[in-house]
TrEMBL record:
Keyword Cell inner membrane: no
Protein's UniProt keywords contain Transmembrane helix: yes
Protein name according to UniProt: Sporulation integral membrane protein YlbJ
Family annotation (Pfam families): Gate
Length: 406
């Protein structure tokens, strides 16, 4: 039997087993689906939609190209990507997964990036946003605002480290001559003006396309979140995850970690929210070990996020393999940085808190800004999601149904 037929047989067996597990465990399937839906319509959709729409508008009006010229002297020497990569990086950190992949794919389709440049950019512009790290994980799961400082620092510094490593990716494939990077406000404005002139769509059409494209992507993301929430639960039900947990426990023992963190780690490999939550409630485990495992999970991103990125990149010639390698690198970097930064950013910081009279709002245990924002998003997120889906449906009917009647 050749490899192709063996793969077909393997995929058939996996899908059949999962389908049977859904039928046998309807209650568990429903609960995990609801959990995934709650994450999507309460947090993911309302937090990502504004960034997606704004990004589409900034690209359409040429503002991204303007920013790209200004950031060229920084991004080209450091990461070997065009200046527009700075915009993608900033938006990726602000909005979270998988914004970096969506923007990189959009710029690649517009030929503003080469394939190698896009692969480098995707590798370090997908990250968790501060709202998730501070609001959901630090305050929501661990009930510890100061922990967010360590997690955020290790996460974003490791992200930059991945970018510096991935700058060497595809050097043999590059055929673009080296260009001298220079800061030119006049050139930047000229490109901005040229891009605006080239955009022939009316303003209403640009806004409509931005909303439609953003909601379409978010619907795809929602499907993956629900799918992997169910998949994770079914693999637990049929004993697959407990089986691999045994081997992870052995690895953790070698690293002198608590074996109780094996199941949260394995769950986090599939879905970061569940893995982080399970790590936070692990008993009889040092907080440092919980933080290291959580950083590893955040750096890896989870197979759910990676499936979202793979789906977005499938519409382009950008390869997924470099992104997957980058996620492994960031997971290791983030876990290592958490260990190194633990004493200066957590232990020493907690000792200084009683001495400081005024603390920034973000780091104050009593009034954490991101925790408040996270609670607000949970309260009003479903309303925003339903409203935008209603608007999206009307726009689809207007664009595809009504023209046929005329």
């Amino acid at each position: 039997m050749n490899k192709s037929k063996l793969l077909t047989l393997l995929l058939t067996a996996i899908i059949t087993i999962l389908s049977l597990s859904l039928i046998i465990n309807p209650q568990a399937t429903l609960e995990s689906s609801i959990r995934g839906l709650h994450i999507w319509w309460g947090i993911v959709f309302p937090s990502l939609l504004p960034f997606f729409i704004l990004s589409e508008l900034l690209i359409s009006f040429g503002i991204v190209s303007f920013i790209g010229v200004l950031l060229e002297p920084l991004m080209r020497p450091l990461f070997r990507v065009p200046g527009i990569g700075g915009f993608v990086w900033a938006m990726g950190m602000a909005s979270g997964f998988p914004s970096g992949a969506k923007l990189s794919a959009t710029l690649r389709k517009q030929s503003q990036l080469t394939r190698v440049e896009a692969e480098r950019l995707v590798s370090f512009t997908n990250s968790s946003n501060p709202l998730f790290i501070f609001g959901a994980i630090s305050v929501g799961f661990f009930h510890n605002a100061q922990l967010g400082i360590v997690l955020a620092a290790s996460h974003y510094v490791s992200n930059m480290c991945v970018g510096l490593v991935m700058r060497f990716h595809g050097r043999k494939e590059e055929q673009i001559p080296k260009q001298k990077s220079s800061f030119s406000l006049r050139t930047a404005f000229h490109i901005l003006h040229t891009k605006r002139i080239e955009e022939t769509r009316p303003l209403g059409k640009i806004l409509g396309d931005a909303v439609t494209s953003s909601v379409h992507t978010l619907l795809m993301i929602g499907g993956f979140i629900i799918l992997f929430s169910v998949l994770n639960r079914m693999l637990t039900q049929i004993g697959i995850i407990p089986f691999f947990t045994f081997w992870i426990q052995y690895i953790l023992q070698l690293l002198s970690f608590s074996t109780a963190l094996a199941f949260p780690l394995l769950s986090g490999i599939f879905e970061i929210t569940l893995g982080s939550q399970l790590a936070s409630v692990t008993t009889n485990t040092p907080l440092l070990q919980q933080a290291i495992i959580t950083s590893f999970i955040l750096g890896f991103g989870g197979l759910s996020v990676q499936a979202q990125v793979a789906s977005i990149l499938a519409d382009t010639d950008i390869r997924f393999k470099p992104y997957f390698i980058a996620r492994i690198l960031q997971a290791v970097f983030a876990a290592s940085l958490t260990y190194l930064l633990w004493k200066p950013l957590y232990m020493n910081w907690n000792q200084l808190i009683p001495v400081v009279e005024e603390l920034p709002v973000i780091t104050s245990p009593s009034t954490p800004f991101f925790a408040t924002l996270y609670d607000t998003t949970l309260s009003y997120g479903p309303i925003i999601t339903i409203s935008m889906l209603f608007l999206y449906t009307i726009m689809l009917l207007r664009n595809h149904v009504l023209p046929k009647k005329t």
